[in-house]
Automatic annotation (TrEMBL):
It comes from Brachypodium distachyon (Purple false brome). The keyword Signal applies. The keyword Signal applies. Keywords: Signal. The gene is LOC100844610. This is Alginate lyase 2 domain-containing protein. Residues 50-229 form the Alginate lyase domain. Residues 1-24 form the signal peptide. Coiled coil: none annotated.
Length: 233
């Protein structure tokens, strides 16, 4: 007879998910505190793009119901994925993910910005939580990925962007100057990273959890609220 007890990795997922109710009660004051690290305003000179529910396309493992890997309650989007999960469809051999692909606002020129308040619970490792993706079929899939390894937010597997990311709400702003092929990352209003990137024909933003190729935890989770897209006025 098959065991009715959950696997160790599922137990970890359940424990991580158990705190979502508390996370969903994020207040405006908490968000203001998260974004106030120095009083920086990376959105100055930008205008918000109108986003509707249809712009938030969820991609999750094809072999389990979406509701077992994603929730959206009280303004908080919670994403989690197990290291043993399948890809998001049967046509790809990529690693498992539960992400939102922001649709309807792909761009090829100008200056664009992703803004959101993120939360990564301790224990999550070996995962991308935000990326700028290139057009489908491009020689290089992304120009920016922000990975989490043991509490450190990194540009891909390299330079540290923020050294202590666990168990707190942080304001993330990622600015992409497509004309100059440059990206700049701000955490809590402070500039943390900038680099030139390989140009592509078009781009779009993604966020959530996408398992990487080393140091993966059995379960990976991130939460996001107040996600928006901006562009230069």
């Amino acid at each position: 007879m098959a065991s009715l007890l959950p696997s160790p990795s599922m137990l970890i997922c359940l424990l991580l998910a158990a705190t979502v109710a508390a996370a969903a009660m994020t207040t405006t004051q908490q968000l203001d505190e998260a974004g106030g690290g120095g009083g920086g305003n990376p959105t100055a000179g930008f205008v918000k793009v109108d986003l509707t529910a249809g712009n938030f396309q969820v991609q999750s493992p094809y072999n389990v119901p979406e509701s077992q890997r994603y929730s959206y309650r009280d303004g908080v989007r919670q994403f989690w994925v197990r290291e043993t999960d399948k890809p998001f469809n049967t046509a790809t051999h990529t690693n498992p993910r539960t992400e939102v692909r922001l649709r309807g606002h792909d761009y090829s020129k100008g200056v664009w910005q992703f803004e959101g308040y993120g939360y990564v619970p301790s224990g999550t490792s070996g995962v991308s939580v935000m990326q700028i993706h290139c057009e489908e079929g491009a020689a290089h899939a992304t120009i920016l990925m922000l990975h989490v390894y043991d509490g450190v937010l990194r540009f891909y597997d390299g330079q540290a962007v923020e050294k202590d990311i666990y168990d707190r709400w942080f304001r993330l702003n990622v600015v992409h100057d497509a004309d100059r092929s440059a990206v700049t990352v701000y955490v809590d209003g402070e500039r943390r990273f900038a680099a030139g990137v390989i140009p592509s024909r078009s781009y779009y933003f993604k966020f959530g959890v996408y398992m990487q190729h080393r140091d993966q935890s059995p379960c990976m989770e991130s939460r996001w609220t107040n996600v928006t897209v901006l562009t230069k006025a």
